[in-house]
Structures are given as structure tokens and as C-alpha cells.
Amino acid sequence: MATTPLDGNRERDADPGTEPDQGRIDDLPDFSDMTTHNWHAHDDTMSGVGFLTIARRLPALIGQAVRMAWEASPRDTVATIVLNLLAGVFTAFGLLATTGVLEALFASGPTPDRVRAALPGLLVVGAAAVLRTLLQAGAGWAQARLEPQVTRIAEERLYGLTSKVELIRFDDPDFHDALQRARNRGVNSSDSVVGSAIDVLTAGISLLAAGGVLGVLHPILLPLLVVAVLPDAWAAVRSARMRYGTMLSLLPTYRRKWIISELLADRDTAAEVRSFTMRGFLLRVYDLVARTEQDVMVTLARRQATARLVGEALGGLGAALVYLALGLLLATGSVPLAVAGTAVLAVRSGQSSLSRLLFAVNQLYENGLYFTDFVDFCESNEQEPTGERGRPPAGFDRLTVDEVTFTYPGKDTPALNGVSIHIDRGEVIALVGENGSGKTTLSKILAGLYAPDGGRVLWDGTDLAEVEPHLLRGNIAVIAQDHTRWPLTARHNITMGLEKGEDTVVRAAGVAGADEVIAELPHGYRTLLDRRFKDGQELSGGQWQRIAVARGFYRDAPLLICDEPTAALDARAEHALFERIQRHSDGRTVLLITHRLASVRHADRIYVLDHGLVVEQGTHDELLDREGIYADLYNLQARAYSR
């Protein structure tokens, strides 16, 4: 995309009271290769297909839509289809009845007599029109009821899967891309696919009704309908392909525009936009991108208008041929005047129905591509039953990690390579090592979040591979460094949906030191911890960490895993927390992961990991005497504090 320096903006930014100048934009930041969303992921597919390709895929798409509609509501599905069919029948019936009305009106005799003769036919036509309108209204009501139900079951199906699949799948780029396609537009296309499929059926029924009427009136009239509607069909398809091609060419522009708009309006970037006075620079970039999009869309509007003009001109020529043919049929006495009048109405009805049909077909095909992303994602992640897994033991005397290996998707180097450790009930065990040594990966395997590629994890004699993971996690509490700041009340941020009574909540908060944080909140445990909502409150990083520690203590599980639980705490709060953990661990088992080695001095055993291997183990004093990696790291930290 071409860019130009905006020298005028330099002068504007130099005025008093404006933000500091950010310099000229000689080169627009290139975001074209960044995949930030998938709203236009299939525009390249749409831009290269013709109407016949779309038509061949219609039966499969309609079948998928009907199956999902039936799952959502069989009653509304049947009502929508049947009522639309009946509306088409009454459309045809009304057109045929019009012939009798016109014959009566065109007959010889006084006008009052002709009107009286036409009155019964007029009543029939009016009744058919009223019934058709009522049936269409009923079908619309059923369809309006159906679409939100389809959206609900599609969302439930998707999020039921995303919350159930193995955690390791989220580290797979291919899974992530498939999920984003299914989530961003795929699930949102479910109701559109159903609606478009119904619109295709409705418009098709109306078109068949008009064609059937013409076939009944005179065999040659049906080809006349084709002559009349083909130009409109060409113009609609041409206009649609222009739009899809333009959307494809604008994909890099959309990405740039979306990224810049997020930078300007997102809460996470708001502080730095102001601190670094980025507003002027970002607005200039946004304006340049938006103007590019505007120019392309204006050009598209001109091209589409030209296509429509040509289509309407050809359509007018087709209509002239229809009327010429009708005139010849009238002149030769092949059809009476009343039949010719009905044929004109049927042709006009057919043109309108075809226009709706083409629009619905294009919408169905486009939405069907995204809907297929959703269906494929769900089908590929709905695991087949692998047999009943057992319940985990209520506790353990020894937890054993035996020669465990694990490699992340897309990585060549294993994160864990033959790791073996053991943890006895009631012990405080520490995992230490530099970043990337495998500490957190091992803790996630112990927590049942990852399944090892090789080796075993045993609770006494029970292999966790034979245990239902969801039930296992009920016996484990995790205090994570990267804990989630849930937009819930303080109480629900601790209980996490597990109800053990108010006394347990208060006790867990007290052990974690979170009671001091909650005491300062305006509504105590009922305070919503998210400032984006009314009366919501924001906490500091250290305050949030205390809440996260409280939720781990609240679970009161046989195994407590603490992964950098003091990363956001000051020195005094860190010391107090480790003292609380030691008191709380009485009779329980604690796995502690931390970089602050002074905090693990009193651990029963320390395992030192390096590049996925356990390279040292022992007590604090034993490891210092060994003068290995642990001693180096500990002395390095100690010297930093002694200077």
C-alpha cells in the first residue's frame, strides 16, 4: 500500500497545546503478515468461485443447516419449512386465480357486470394473498425463534469442547488457528447458515411457484421467465464477486486498521499511549489506512453500480423480449389477454424471487465456509470414548515421577527428559532452576494438566494415566504465578465455584493474607473485582496474588502446588506468606517452585532442574556443600543482598 509523508501534520503538532511531534510517517508500519483475526479468512476462496461451484455445494450446506436447526428445535424447524412451502402454494394459487379475475374484467359487457363477475375471483385472490402473508409471517416467527436457539447450542458445543480438551492443545499453533476460526466467525455463522438456508428454500419455492404458473398457462412462457431473469442473475453474481475480490485485496488494510484501533482503544495500551504521547502518531497512521480503505470502497461502489446498470439494461431488453413474445402470442391468438396479464405478474414475481434466491445463495455459501470451520473443529476435537477411567485415591503416601519425558508441540527439544522424583506425604518439596529448566512443565504434569509423553506418575501404586483427569484435579490445589484475574466478586475469586461455607472462605483468606485486602474493599467479599463494571474495584498485582493464594488454600487439597506464589509481593509480604505456607502445610504436601532460593531453605528436599533434567537433589545444606548449580545460584542471590 502506498504511503506519503504527512508534513502538514508536523506543523499541526508543533502548535502550542498539542502533543509533541512524533516525526514524519515515511513508512507505514507493516502489519500485513500478522494474523489477528479470521473475519475474512475465506474471502480468497469466495473471490475465485463461480455460481455453479456454489450451487454444487448447496445441498451439503443445506443439509448441515437443517440438522443443526433440528437439534435446536424440531418444532420450529418443521414450522418454518412447512409454512414456507404452504406460502409458496398459495402464491401459485393466487397467480392462477388472477387469470380468472382478468378474464372476467376483459370480457365484453357493461363495466358493473364485469366487476361483479370478477368479484368472486377477486375474493379468492385476496384470500390467497392474506393466507400467504399469514403463512410467511408464521414462518418468519418460527425462523426468528429458531436462530437464537441455533446460536446457543453452537456456542455450548464449542465452549464445552474448549473447556474440556487437553491443555497441551493450546500450545499447538494449528489448534490455536482452528480454534480462532471456529470461535471468531464460525460459531457466529451458525444462525446465519440456518437463516440463509431457509431463505434459499423460501426464494426457491417462490421461483418454482412462478415458473409452475407460467408452465400451466402456456409451455413457451416458462423459457420467457429465464430470458427475463438471466440479466439480473448475471448482475448479482458479478457484483458479489467484485465485492469478494475487493475484500481480499483489503485484508492487509483491515489488519492494520484493526491493530491500530486496538492500540487506540484498549485498556492495556491506554497508559503507554499517553505516557509516550503516541496519540498523534497513531491517529495519523489510522487516518492513512482508513483513507486507503475508503478510496477502494468508493471504487467498488462505482464498479458495482456499473454492473447493476448493465444488468438492468439487459434486464430491460429481456423484459422487452418477453412483452414482444407475449404480444405475438396475443396477436396469433395463442393466449388470451387474461393469461398474458397473469404471465406478466408471474414474470415479475419470478424476477423478485430470483433476486432473493441469488442473494441467499451467496450468503449461504460464504457463511457456510466459516460454519464448516466450526463443524470441522468440533468434529476433530470430540474425542471418542476411550473406556471408563478410575477414580483417583483420596490421598497418597508417596507421589512418584518415574522417567517422565515431555515435549511441547512444534518443539524439537524436550522440556523434560527422563525426570524422576518422589514426594512423600507431608513433605515440602522445592523445584528450582533457571528459566526454561522444566519446573513449571513438571508441576503441570503433577497437577494432571499435561499428560507425559513417556514415563509414569504414580499416586502410591495408581498410575495417573488410568485416572479420570477431572476427578484427579479435585485432589490438587494450584497457586500459579500467571493466575487469572476473574471479573467476579472477591468471594468467587476465592471459591472458584466450589462451595465449602463462609467460614472456610474467611479462613483461607486469613491464611493467605487476603483478609487485609478484602477488608479495604467497599463491599467486602461481595465487591466485584473489575473496574470495567459499575462499582467494580481494581487491585494491585500483590493484592491479586494474595487472592490467588487464598483460592489455593481454600481448596484444601492433599497436594498444594505453589508456582512462584510470591512473584508480585514485597519482601515483608513474601516472608509472611512463606511462614503461612509452612504452617498451612502441616500434614499436607507442598510442591514449591520459586527463583528466590532463600525461601526454600527449610524444604525437606530440593530438586534442581537444568534443561529438562534433574541434575541435583538434596536439602539446602547438602546442595550448598556440593557446590553445584544450586550453590552458584544461591550464592549469587546472597551476594546481591549483601552489597
From TrEMBL:
Keyword terms, alphabetized: ATP-binding, Cell inner membrane, Cell membrane, Membrane, Nucleotide-binding, Transmembrane, Transmembrane helix, Transport
One Pfam family linked to the record: ABC_tran
Claim: Nucleotidyltransferase is one of the keywords in the record: no
All copies of domain ABC transmembrane type-1, residue ranges: 78-366
GO cellular component, one term: plasma membrane
Annotated TM spans: 77-97, 117-135, 193-214, 220-237, 309-330
SMART domains reported in the protein's UniProt record: AAA
Region (Disordered): 1-32
Family indicated by similarity: Belongs to the ABC transporter superfamily. Siderophore-Fe(3+) uptake transporter (SIUT) (TC 3.A.1.21) family.
Protein name per the record: Multidrug ABC transporter permease
